[in-house]
Design brief:
Chain B: It is found in: Cytoplasm, Cytosol; Nucleus. The structure holds 2 protein chains of 2 kinds. Chain A contains 24 helices and 5 strands. Chain A is mostly helical. A 5-stranded parallel β-sheet of chain A has the order 2-1-3-4-5, sandwiched between helices. In chain A, helix 3 runs parallel beside helix 4, helix 8 crosses helix 11 and helix 10 crosses helix 11. By secondary structure, chain B is mostly helical. Chain B has one domain: Four Helix Bundle (Hemerythrin (Met), subunit A) (Up-down Bundle). In chain B, helix 1 packs antiparallel against helix 6, helix 3 runs antiparallel to helix 6 and helix 4 packs antiparallel against helix 5. The two termini of chain B are 29 Å apart. Classes of the chains: A mainly alpha, B mainly alpha.
């Protein structure tokens, strides 16, 4: 959508706003459709979430807004919500008869712009267009800003520094919004809109940084590697700045914990700083096997989880286990015994650390594995290896940390005691939202079973009754109608014969073809 | 003729009011009526038709679910109740909706006897409502046939 088109559309807006309404309940759908028409929106309806997705995928520019019921047989409304948000970035409004706040919370967390309770009133629908305006305004501002940025600033540093403060402020507001689930999402409250660092975008960024090396990574090169349209060097530069500062922050903080676990176990083995070299050496040995020993093992979860955020976790591990492998990702993974890919995948499912892509892991793992071998060849204090010189600085810094740590006696304690979750969330603004919705995408695999009885039951209504979805249901399906004869229906039928005949008569068009005699004076 | 129409209209008005007073219908029904206009003159009839179709279907599902000789899947029953609650509240079927709320609790409590009884009540209730609305539409038809227009009934 070009800016010009936006302006044109705004003239008539919200009249003609294109809404896609999804609800498996035909009664509600019909009412919703009429209500929306009454608001002068353009309405498309479907009773299947799957169809809705197809329609949207076909052409995401066909619709401005999606309204979806929560309980649907073929797909959970929340899942649809996530997918629409992720793939099409359209505003989605949830609709449900559940007034339970936990459902509302769920909707909000999954990124719903609004949550309406059935029965929906026309007043509520009259205002939904604001969600569309918000989103498109945000996008517009973003694109305008990007143009502005590219005309500003010459060097990366200048641009970054100038923008940094604004962006930090912006990010804070952004993250708060994210954590509140977009409830108060208002672009005008933010200083300056910026590129939305989605998971995919961030992964690309990480891959590029990893490839170049954190210290050596330059925004221009990162940008080239990322190869993303409309992304400017300034965007990357500021993102990189934040990345680095967050890394630093976390490393510093995590050092205290990292040291407790890892240093403690190894510190005892050392008698002097010099022994650090031996320490390094020792640490390298188990790397191949991917095994930590001692307290460091407890850190594995934590760091790996962090890797999911953006691979910055390892520094605090590596602080105690200074460099073993070196490249951009290596810095991050230094000293960290690279677990086999499987482990990383396992951690993908760890609720706290979603979103780690295997692609990324291989990027990280492979070069490190190679470097591990190199590391092994070092016999002396290894950080000065010229072959690994790009990361000498990093190594040095890490060693400094280690030195500092070694000089203090820090009692061992559980690394997990201080989650650092906030740090990461603050950095990667989309993380919170991702953590929110990516989880369910994976977690849904299990709850799907719990939902099974419900959804399947609903599926029963429309699908082939002989499918026999559950063990319990099997009997039901085999019996189907005949079994009713002996029970509820009988009771009901016997009680109301008159009603039934009239009810049957009632089938089809209401209000047509009736006998006057059926009129009862029961006033 | 006019007197006849007037009489019918009066009858109609009273009938509608009684439906509200007796709790068969609520505000949502009024909303529904307000959506009906020249562009969609049969809107209310259409929607109610859909609703009663839904009722038949859902009650049937629930009856089957509760009729299992093995373990009863209360989740499934609950899901159907939830659906019915949604649609009944959307059309303004007040009594049906009220029953659904109770029904839901019974499902959650896995109260088999309670559920069965409640389902029977739901069945009766929606059929009763259906009949009453039939009468209402009938009256409307009579009025129109007699040359009059169906009055807008103001619910206080």
């Amino acid at each position: 959508m070009t800016v010009e088109q936006d302006f044109e559309a705004v003239d008539q807006f919200p009249v003609g706003m294109r809404v896609l309404a999804v609800d498996d309940d035909q009664t509600c759908l019909r009412i919703l459709e009429t209500l929306l028409h009454r608001c002068q929106y353009h309405v498309t309806t479907t009773d299947s979430a799957q169809t809705a997705l197809e329609l949207l995928r076909e052409n995401k520019n066909k619709f401005d807004l999606v309204i979806s019921d929560v309980d649907m047989p073929d797909m959970d409304g929340f899942k649809l919500l996530e997918l629409v948000g992720l793939e099409m970035d359209l505003p989605v409004i949830m609709l449900s008869a559940h007034s339970d706040p936990k459902y509302v919370m769920k909707g909000v967390k999954h990124g719903a712009c609004d949550y309406l309770l059935k029965p929906v009133r026309i007043e509520e629908l009259k205002n939904i267009w604001q969600h569309v305006v918000r989103k498109s305004k945000f996008k517009k501002m973003k694109s305008i800003v990007i143009h502005d940025e590219s005309s500003q600033g010459n060097s990366d540093q200048n641009g970054v520094k100038a923008n940094r403060k604004r962006k930090d402020q912006f990010e804070e507001v952004e993250e708060e919004d994210e954590e509140r689930g977009n409830e108060n999402d208002d672009p005008t409250a933010q200083k300056k809109p910026r590129v939305l660092w989605t998971r995919e975008l961030h992964n690309k960024f990480l891959a590029a940084v990893d490839h170049l090396g954190v210290e050596k990574a330059q925004p221009k090169k990162i940008l080239d590697l990322m190869n993303v349209d409309k992304l400017t060097r300034e965007n990357v530069a500021s993102h990189l700045q934040k990345f680095r500062s967050a890394l630093k922050k976390i490393t510093n903080e995590a050092n205290q914990q990292a040291s407790m676990a890892a240093i403690d176990s190894h510190f005892m083995q050392m008698s002097s700083l010099k022994g650090l070299g031996g320490f390094h050496h020792q640490r390298q040995i188990p790397l191949g096997s991917g095994q930590f020993h001692g307290g460091a093992a407890t850190m594995r979860h934590y760091p790996l989880g962090r890797l999911n955020s953006f691979g910055g976790v390892f520094p605090h591990v590596s602080s105690s286990l200074p460099r073993n492998h070196n490249d951009g990702g290596g810095y991050i993974l230094q000293g960290m015994p690279i677990p086999p890919l499987d482990d990383l995948h396992i951690n993908n499912n760890n609720k706290a650390f979603p979103g780690f892509s295997s692609q990324q892991s291989s990027l990280m793992v492979a070069p490190n594995n190679q470097l591990v071998l190199q590391g092994h060849q070092q016999s002396s204090y290894p950080s000065l290896n010229p072959g690994l010189s790009p990361h000498f600085e990093i190594n040095k810094r890490l060693e400094d940390w280690s030195n500092a740590l070694l000089s203090t006696n820090i009692p061992q304690s559980d690394v997990h005691s201080k989650p650092d979750a906030l740090e990461w969330n603050h950095f990667c603004n989309s993380d919170a939202a991702q953590a929110g919705f990516i989880d369910p995408l994976q977690m849904k695999q299990q709850p799907a079973n719990n939902l099974g009885p419900m959804t399947d039951a609903q599926r029963l209504r429309s699908s082939n009754p002989n499918e026999g979805l559950f063990v319990g249901q099997q009997k039901l399906e085999n019996d189907t109608m005949p079994s009713n004869a002996g029970s509820l229906d009988d009771i009901v039928n016997s009680m109301m014969p008159k009603e039934q005949s009239q009810a049957e008569f009632f089938e089809g068009d209401l209000g047509f073809g009736w006998h006057n005699s059926s009129l009862r004076t029961c006033i | 003729m006019d007197a006849h129409v007037a009489q019918l209209q009066m009858q109609y008005r009273n009938y509608i009011l009684s439906l509200y007073q007796q709790g068969f219908l609520d505000d949502q029904f009024t909303e529904l009526k307000s959506l009906q206009d020249d562009g969609s003159p049969d809107f209310v009839a259409e929607v109610l038709s859909l609703f009663f179709d839904d009722c038949v279907k859902l009650v049937g599902n629930m009856a089957r679910a509760l009729d299992q000789t093995g373990t009863v899947d209360f989740c499934q029953v609950g899901a159907n109740v939830h659906q019915l609650k949604g649609s009944s509240s959307s059309v303004g079927a007040k009594r049906v909706k009220g029953l659904c709320i109770n029904f839901k609790e019974l499902c959650e409590a896995k109260n088999y006897e309670g559920c069965v009884r409640c389902l029977q009540q739901v069945d009766i209730e929606y059929k009763t409502l259906k009949a009453k609305l039939q009468d209402m539409f009938n009256l409307e038809k009579q009025i129109v046939q007699a040359g009059g227009i169906v009055p807008q009934v103001d619910i206080n």
